[in-house]
Amino acid sequence: MGVAGRPLARQHWFRHSIPLTIFLLLLLYLSARILGALSGCGSGAQACIPEGPPPFQVQQELGALVAPQWKEPPCLEPQGMLGRMMRPFQASLNPSGDVELSQYLAGWRELVKLLTPLGSIFTFATSEASTKVTALEARLRGPDAEHYASLAAMAAWERRAGLLERPGTVPRDSARSSGSRTLLLLHRALRWSQLCLHRVATGALGGPDAGAQCSDAYGTALAPHHPWLIRQAARLAFLSFPGRGRLLELSCPGTTEAEARTALARAAGTLEDVYNRTQGMLAELGLTQLA
Fold it and tell me: How far apart are CA 40 and CA 88, in angstroms?
């Protein structure tokens, strides 16, 4: 073939090679998609990395950890740290759908004992909680004790007696707050405690540390009800928050991390049950705006 014919040959070859190249690329793409689907990988632009098991999640892990070889750790037993706290809280949920105040406050006493060693931010919160628990316990032992057997009975009597604060008002003397308002404040603190313990128990390895998770829980449950100065103090206190391992060790000593996580998740589940029951009652009784 002459020199003049060579460009024509190259053009002819190039023109026919384009469809072949497109076909090969399409074949490679489809092969990658099929292999990706079989291996469980995504189809994005990033490298395909098969996903491992999901991070620690309460319900799935409880089923996995409560295996025949897994024995309930001492901290969940009646005299264990978590067990002593869970029992009265569970007992506070009576079959009629009410909340028994004596058991609720007994649960709070044990929760304070659990949280106090965990750091300065808990010391601040538990000292406030202890004051409120003491104030309610005084009502349970006072001359009107018969009206303070349960949340429903307390709210009904304080409404009849004209003791409930108007929404948005702050009593000049906190010691004279209604029992319903005092319980509402405890109720919000319980939510923070529950969220914090739950996130410590279920946080993924390599994820946010315990301080960040409990700080986020504070932002959800308590910060909206606190003035700016207290929010800033809390933010600083979370900087010295103990790590997840230390929290698990204090909550359930002498166990593996998996056992401690499961035990703490159970305890947080009990607090959530109590919170949900109380929240539903407070909303139904129109008491959520007392403070």
Answer: 46
∠ CA(174), CA(180), CA(186), 5° rounding?
A: 75
Residues 6+ apart with CB under 8 A from 46: none
Rounded CA gap, 256 and 253, in Å?
A: 9
Residue whose C-alpha is closest to residue 134's, from 109, 113, 117: 109
Residues 234, 178: Cα–Cα separation, whole Å: 27
Q: How far apart are CA 99 and CA 149, in angstroms?
A: 9
Full DSSP string of 5-51: HHHHHHHHHHHHHHHHHHHHHHHHHHHHHHHHHHHT---SSS-----
Give strand pairing partners of 99: 93
Read off φ and ψ for residue 150, nearest 5 degrees.
-145, 170
Structure-block tokens of residue 116? 């106090």
Model's pTM, two decimal places? 0.74
Specify the 3-state DSSP secondary structure of 222. Answer: coil
User: 90-122, pLDDT tens digit by residue?
Assistant: 999 999 999 999 999 999 999 999 888 776 666
The answer to whether residues 284 and 236 touch, using CB atoms and an 8 Å cutoff, is: no
**Nearest one of 181, 184, 185 to 164, comparing CA atoms:** 181
- Single-letter residue type at 143: P
What are 203's two structure tokens? 């946080």
What does the alpha-carbon distance between residue 23 and residue 40 come to, in Å, rounded to a whole number? 25
| pLDDT tens track for 31-61 | 333 333 333 333 333 333 333 333 333 333 3
Q: Rounded to whole angstroms, how far apart are CA atoms 287 and 247?
A: 34
Query: Six-digit token pair at 107?
Result: 């649960």
Judge whether 251 and 201 are in contact, CB under 8 Å. no
pLDDT of residue 40: 35
Predicted pLDDT at 155: 97
